Amino acid sequence: MLLYQDLLTGDELLSDSFPYKEIQNGMLWEVAGKWVVKGAIDVDIGANPSAEGGEDEGVDDQSVKVVDIVDTFRLQEQPAFDKKQFLVFMKRQIKLLIPKLDEEKLVLFKKHIEAATKFLLSKISDLQFFVGESMHDDGSLVFAYYKDGATDPTFLYFAYALKERRLSLSGLLDSYSKYHSSLSMDSSV
């Protein structure tokens, strides 16, 4: 399994479970998100509760609609940026990324970053902004928007702000354990 982490913070942002399409000369990855229902389990055991005299005995079947990518990678939504704020962010992001890129990527990055920035600026009023779980100030932004007529969001990632990590079975188990231990820490009794 391939995991894509924020090059600057190490936050997990995407995996190869979510196929991407390169756009803007490979500067951005476009990924389809999907609304899913999380939490509720509808079990039909074949009994008729009204005939049995039983009611729902206090079982809390809370279900929540979440976007799969946001939920899987624990992305944190941020307030919207206006054009000026976005340009300030981009200047800082470029400054932070340049020293992290190898020579070949750096040439392509410098050649195409302006067009990718203009592309995002053209959609700025339609974008939702997300960062990784750590919510680090230097983290890369992940963008979401709805294409015309779409009911599920499309996500945009800066390709050069991601580093690929191959997970072995032990790496998968470590990630799984980390995620579930963080869930148990959240429960306060």
TrEMBL record:
A GO cellular component entry from the record: cytoplasm
Q: Where in the cell is it found?
A: Cytoplasm
Q: Which SUPFAM superfamilies match?
A: Mss4-like
Location of the TCTP domain: 1-167
InterPro entries associated with the record: Mss4-like_sf, Mss4/transl-control_tumour, TCTP, Translation_control_tumour_CS, Translational_control_tumour_p
What molecular functions are annotated in GO for this chain? calcium ion binding
Which residues are in coiled coils?
A: none
Is Amino-acid biosynthesis one of the keywords?
Answer: no
Q: Which UniProt keywords apply?
A: Calcium, Cytoplasm
A GO biological process of this protein is: developmental process
Biological role: Involved in calcium binding and microtubule stabilization.
Q: Which family does it belong to?
A: Belongs to the TCTP family.
Which protein are we looking at? Translationally-controlled tumor protein homolog
Q: Which organism is it from?
A: Mucuna pruriens
The record lists the lineage as: Eukaryota, Viridiplantae, Streptophyta, Embryophyta, Tracheophyta
